[in-house]
Records
---
Amino acid sequence: SGHSSYVTGVAFNADGSILASGSEDDTVRLWKVPGGALLGVLQGHSANVTGLAFSPDGVQLASAGSDRVIRVWNVASRRQVGTLSGHTENANSVAFSPDGSLIVSAGSGIDDNTLRLWDAEALTQVQVLYPDGPTNAIAFSPDGTLLASGGATFLTLWGVPRDSTAGPTRWDDLLTHSRNGGILGLCLLRRITPISCEGLTCA
């Protein structure tokens, strides 16, 4: 009932009752905690599963893969409910925003150094961000106002607007990014300012 190849990603749901594992066998498996009973096998990826993230409410699970696709699953039914396509090379990390409204995925190839933001309900692309290189890890701050991305030679914080009630188009106006061009570009957000670095201090 276990994976037939290396496990490449794991994630707990919010209450810790389910553990998801992804593998080079191209599957995602759901396990009951405690006890370790297999709850289901999610099949759909055509290459390695590289990253996993539960939605904050535990209803959905997002999986990233070397097939360049983010797949979104309903945890209860074990069924795929959508795919997020846009990466042109491996997608190696995925995360939900704390309020569950956004999914972010990271490309890891030479020709796809992008972070892609998706509307978690509509499953449509909201914004494409361009870090300084292939991204290995991504995470939202607990309050959802910052998104951290890191790679071999960089670590960047991106400012996220607190008020997203106007819809995804607000990102075009309010998402700001600054970097100093050095090996480590770390930007501390003091407040969101449209299309400028005012309010940002870069070390």
Note: The chain has a mean pLDDT of 77.
---
Amino acid sequence: GVYSLLKLHHYFLVNYLVLSFLILIFSAGVSYIWLKEMKVNSVKEELLKHVHVVDTLLNSERDIDTLMRTLEEKTAIRFTIVSSLGEVIAESSFDKRIMDNHLQRPEIKAAKKEGIGESIRYSNTINEDMLYLAKVSRLNNELIYIRASYLLVKITEDFLNLWSRIFVIFLLGMVVAIVASFILGKKIGLELNYILDSLYAIS
């Protein structure tokens, strides 16, 4: 009977450890997907907020290029003003004179239809994947597009930093649980051995 109890205890302990490991992996996977989506949505909201800021400032500023560069220095967000024909009117990071026509950019096409458009794609200008958000506006009564963009690698870095901290917390919690289960198991084992020794002594 005592041996059966010991085997039962070991069985439950092994299954507990396996279950704990599976929960850890599942939690890590779910939190990875959830946090990544949350971070991307957060950046989208931030881009939209800054696009609205540009929209309010645009018609009161004479030097739009300087305004774009100043905003990028303060926010680390790249800004581009595009005409209704796709020509780059102002750009915070690059020489607008050598930039391609932007009329067929996915975020511009979406903004033309819906008022606001977004896309995640590779930028041929800076050779990096970026998150773009564009909004229809007007400059001197002419239709334009205000576009804000953010490096996808920065989003990933920020997200991974947050996720790794949460994962470490999960991992530490799991280690504490495992150590506690080993201590409890050892205590139960000692008590069962004591009972076994007592039964041998009696017999």
Note: The chain is about 65% helix and 20% strand.
